[in-house]
From TrEMBL:
<dbReference type="InterPro" id="IPR017601">
    <property type="entry name" value="DGQHR-contain_dom"/>
</dbReference>
<dbReference type="Pfam" id="PF14072">
    <property type="entry name" value="DndB"/>
</dbReference>
<protein>
    <submittedName>
        <fullName>DNA sulfur modification protein DndB</fullName>
    </submittedName>
</protein>
<dbReference type="InterPro" id="IPR017642">
    <property type="entry name" value="DNA_S_mod_DndB"/>
</dbReference>
């Protein structure tokens, strides 16, 4: 275990601009640091980090605490002061710890586990990096939302998925993609992204936000008859996903965005609900040529930022909402065929 205050001082990371074949690490992605740093600072008492892995370039000696038996496996490692500690895995954690310590020096007394290896050269260090990351699999966004106890929107999303009449039993809770034969209409990650967009910037406590989100999606559901037909088993979920786009992630996210605009104007359900009624004029069928180049590229639903922006524009116009200058610029480019 190593105190955090020592991490930036004794554990080095080779950040030189050198060719990949003579490095033993990937280049530090500084864009990841703000989120990691904020995670440490926001959760000083219960953040969780896996162990750092480091190589020691120096003469290492182990001194056993006992002569024989199990005790001989316990003892002290003697490392010369001139030895170098090179991070093999955990360079982003190290960099985030360094930044967090500058903002909150009290974190210096916290500790993190470190696994040490003897540095036997570049080839061994490169192989260590390959082995440590060979079988690493990033969990799906859906299961991240399912298990996240810190994020209030994640909690609201889970409650909607498990209790709301709109979503109950029709949300895939683990995977962030749906197979062609899946009986689910939505993924938990898509619903979470939509709720983040819907509730962004609203000054509400968690209970108010949960009630507002439920009311919003119940109103949307009343305007999209296919969702109800799936619940009554008059339509199969796979057929709705195949023939319509309104259960796909891009459509949910776009609905959240336009809903946020309405809620910022008024949280009175009578006001924003009447504005949403115009969604009945939207043709959600994939066969609608208006979706090509917006939500659909080459016959496939796209989740890119550009396609999301164009889908939001389409819904804003359907609801009679004014486009921002940036949205209007993207719309003009689309109409010219530049997108």
């Amino acid at each position: 275990m190593c105190p955090l205050r020592l991490i930036p001082k004794i554990f080095l990371f080779d950040e030189e601009e050198i060719a990949p074949e003579v490095r033993a690490q990937r280049v530090l992605n500084k864009g990841r640091l703000p989120a990691l740093t904020r995670y440490i600072l926001d959760n000083p008492d219960d953040y969780v980090f896996s162990a750092l892995t480091a190589s020691i370039d120096g003469d290492i000696r182990f001194e056993s605490a006992a002569g024989d038996g199990f005790g001989r496996r316990l003892g002290q490692i003697r490392i010369p002061m001139e030895a170098r500690f090179l991070i093999n895995d955990g360079q982003h954690r190290r960099a985030a710890i360094e930044v967090a310590l500058k903002e909150n020096p009290d974190l210096g007394d916290e500790s993190i586990a470190v696994v040490f290896f003897h540095d036997t050269g570049l080839a061994r260090s490169q192989q260590m990096f390959a082995d440590l990351n060979r079988h690493a699999v990033r969990p799906s966004r859906s299961i991240g939302v399912l298990y996240d106890q810190r994020d209030a929107v994640a909690e609201i999303t889970r409650l909607l998925a498990m209790r709301s009449t709109v979503f109950r039993q029709h949300v895939e809770m683990e995977s962030s993609t749906l197979s062609a034969r899946s009986s689910k209409l939505f993924t938990l990650s898509a619903l979470h992204s939509a709720n983040q967009a819907l509730l962004q910037g609203l000054s509400l406590d968690k209970r108010q936000a949960a009630e507002l989100a439920q009311a919003f999606w119940e109103k949307v559901d009343s305007l999209l008859p296919e969702w109800g037909l799936v619940r009554s088993r008059a339509l199969a979920a796979r057929d709705v996903r195949k023939d319509y786009i309104h259960s796909h992630g891009i459509a949910l996210h776009a609905l959240g965005r336009v809903g946020n605009t309405l809620l910022r104007e008024s949280v009175d359900a009578a006001v924003w609900g009447s504005r949403l009624d115009r969604l009945t004029d939207v043709d959600w069928a994939r066969s609608n040529s208006d979706w090509e180049g917006r939500a659909i590229i080459g016959g496939r639903v796209s989740k890119s930022h550009a396609q999301l922006a164009l889908t939001v524009n389409y819904l804003r116009k359907a609801l009679g909402l004014v486009l921002s200058p940036e949205e209007q610029s993207a719309e003009d480019a689309y109409q010219r065929g530049d997108s």
